[in-house]
Amino acid sequence: MSDKISAGLVSRTYFNMPLWAAQEHGFFADQGLEVTGTIFGNESQVPPLLDGRFQVFIGSPELAIQNQAEGGPIRIVAGNAGKLVHSLIARAPFKRVEDLRGCTIGIFTDKEGTFFHVKAMLAAHGLNYPGDYEVKHTGGVPPRHKALLAGEIDAGLQSVPWNYLAEDEGMNNLGDVIKYVPDWQFVSINVNSEWAEKNRDVLVRFLRAMLRGTEWLYANRAAASAIAARELPASIAHAERAWDFFTSTDALTRDASANLRGLAQVIATLKQTGLLAKSAADDPAAYVDDSYLKAARG
Question: What pTM was computed for the model?
Answer without folding.
Answer: 0.90
